[in-house]
Structure formats: structure tokens, C-alpha cells
Amino acid sequence: MFKKTLLAGAMFVSLTVSAVAQDKWKIIHAGTLLADAREEAKSEQSIVIKNKQIVEVRDGYVSASDVEGAADAEMIDLSNQFVMAGLIDTHTHILGQQEPNSRELRVTRSSQMLTLMGVEYGMRTLRAGFTTIRNVGGDRNAIFALRDAINQDIVMGPRIKASGQGISPTGGHGDSSNGFRDDVFATPHSGICDGIAECRRAVRTQIKYGADHIKYVATGGVLSKTATGTDQQFTDEEQIALVEAAHAMGRKVAAHAHGRIGLEAALRAGVDSIEHGSYLDEGTADLFVETGAYLVPTLIAGYTVERIAKEQPHFFIAPVRQKALEVGPMMKQALKLAHDKGVKIAFGTDAGVNDHGTNGYELVLMNEAGMPERAILVSATVNAADLMDLTAVTGTIEAGKEADIIASAGNPLEDIGTLMNPTFVMARGTEIDLNVPRPADLFPWPDGY
Q1: Above 50 in pLDDT, residue 17?
Q2: Which of 302-311, 316-325, 406-415 has the largest mean confidence?
Q3: In which domain, by residue range, is 213 found?
Q4: Are both 404 and 356 inside the same structural domain?
Q5: 75 with 199, same domain?
Q6: What percent of the chain has pLDDT over 90?
Q7: What is the dihedral of CA 202, 208, 214, 216, to 10 degrees?
Q8: Residue 114, H or E segment
Q9: Number of domains in the chain
Q10: What is the rounded CA–CA span in Å between residue 76 and residue 265?
Q11: Last residue of a domain, one of 333, 356, 387
Q12: What are the phi and psi torsion angles at 439 (to 5°)?
């Protein structure tokens, strides 16, 4: 008996030792490398990667024998490609996207199904070159499970920071019971609150269950199934309570905001980012600069809903269609004004409104709005990482950061649209197979996408 126990223990130790993975080295030869979007690109660079982490970046094309311990390194030839840090989308809803029967699905689809859908949509996003996303509202159990499974290498997907349920006043933009019989949602979700005390509790509840940040609706929204407009919904005092409660527990705050009055109230309350910002004016832009908050413009969301409203007039219920036609055209003007006034911009799409995997079209729309290519790339790497408190992890290609790397056939500093079809994607040191048939989009994109 004693011998058997010793033998079993020895076998366990042996299995444990043999199960320890060998270090995996990779060396990328980059024809053109934009290691930091704020700096100039360099030619003929080598990126040395050990497991998930970038070890160093060297001038010239080095071989495996030039790197100590990397004799068996995998060599990746991107010598005819433009290489840069993985893109970051700071406004997504990764658990679902536009569907004609979305109202029915809201009350029939399970959290488990949403998580599985998130795996697929996450991979579409990753293959599009977005190695990190910030999810700003969704089923709490589903999104935290997906985030944690990716962090633990159980499933592959973009790095996720998630807010859990978005926070909304009763009947507001984030109240999922809008338009349903009162017995369908007998108990409102944990993000519904009214008054200062309830708002603080709603924030703390999301944090209790694992929220990385807080997202609330400062104003009405386009896709809420009610004719409540796009103006302020939470009071000034409620917004202050939301922000103070989140900051006190070390969480940043994103505020969905279209209308100017509610948008400015959110800025005065101290939010870290404004999502959409459709009706901002020069005074609002000055307030952005004063507070240091980021604008996350989400032009593709406005583009998408406006197009659906025009081309498929019965897709949305009447109140939603009216809001889509009004708000969509405003968003490009708002971004141009904000950029010209020196507002900090972080890239975000509202993916889920647009189909997942089409995130890159936001880059083109930002450029069409008047934002230069380099500023767009900064917004989608350096600024986005800063907003998400991930500067030490991603956003640039340098020693000590995780290997989030993409490549394109063209130079995005000259043609930003080349990033809509990346030729290479690596997330946390793992190369992603791009040879997967792209699903047909519900709403086809312009020729050449």
C-alpha cells in the first residue's frame, strides 16, 4: 500500500514536470514596423516573442541563432507587409448583433447561448485585427464568463474588459423591459435605478459581480424601443452619484450620451469617456478638454442605423426609425469638431449595431470625417489602451508588452482602408487563422470592403 502510494506520487510528479510547456519563441520579420502610432515607422525590423510576450525589437532581420535560447524559434516572414500593434475597440456589445426578430430573442435567448455567440463574434472581431475590446453593456453572467474563459485560455478571443449590465433609469435607454408586457420582465435587471441611493447600489452591484468599468446612459438612445428622445435622462445628481461610486471603487465610467445637455452633465460629473457624443458643440468640446475625458465616436453605428432606416423602413419600429434618421448624420460633424478642438479620441464602434467583424470600417468613416490617418491609428492603439488602463499590456509593440500584432498589405498611414482586411493577426503570442470564410453580412458593406 505504501509503495503504491509512493509510486502514484512519483507518477504524478513525473506527469506534472512533463506537462510544463516548453518556451515558444517566434521571430517576426517586419518589412515596415509602426511600433508606436505616435512615432515614425521603421523598415526591416525583427520582433522577438517568447510565449505571449514581446522580448525585444531589433533593427534588421535577425535569425533564431542570434537570440539566446531561441534556437527553435518559429520564423514569421512579414517582410513585404506593414506591421503594427493590434487594434482596440473600446465600444462593443459582443454577445449579439442586429437581427430582424431581436425583440423576440430578447425574451427567449439564454445567457448560456449568449456566451457561445460571444465566442463566435469574438473570433470575427479578432480576425478583423481587433485584439482587445471594451464591452459596454450586456448580460452580466454571459459577458463575465466569456471574458474569464478568454483570460484563462479556455477559448480564443480578443482580450475583453467588461462592464456587465449597463446602468439606466426606469424606462430609460438601457431598460430592456421597454415595450414589453409588465409580466415579461417582472424583476428589472440589476442596472435599473432611480435616485442617488439606488444609483450607487447599481454601480456597486456590477462591481460585486466582476465589472471592470461602469457604463451608464446619460441620455436617451437611438435603439431603445420607446419614443423618449436622445436628451438627458438621469438627473445631474444621479450622474454624480454614479461616477463617485464607481471611482471610489477604482472603476472608470463610460457614459452613453447623444444630446448636448445630458452630455455636458456627464462631463461635469467626471466621467472618463463619452460614447457617441452626437450633438456636441464648441462649448462641449472645450468641456471635454477641460475634464480630460475621451470621446468614443462610434460613427459606424450612426452609419448603420441610418442606412437600415432608409433602405429597410419596416426593420425598426417607428420611434427607433425616426431617431436613426436624425442622429446618424450628426456623428461625423461631431467627430470633426471634437478633433479640431483637441478632444482626446478613443476608437470605438458600437459593434453589435454593425455586424461583428466589420469594425474596421469605422477607420474609413473617421478619415472621411476629416481625422488624419495617424491620429486615427493613435486613437485605436495608444489612446484606447490608455482609456482601458492597458498601457502596460498593449497598444504599442515594445519589450514587456503582450504580443498583439497585426499586418496589412498596404500602408495605413497613406490608405487607412487597408486595415479593413488584415493579412496577419497575432493575439497574445498566438497567430490567428484568417482563412475562415466570412459570414454574409446582414447589411452588405460598400464595394471593396
Answers
A1: no
A2: 406-415
A3: 87-387
A4: no
A5: no
A6: 71
A7: -20
A8: helix 111-127
A9: 2
A10: 50
A11: 387
A12: -65, 150
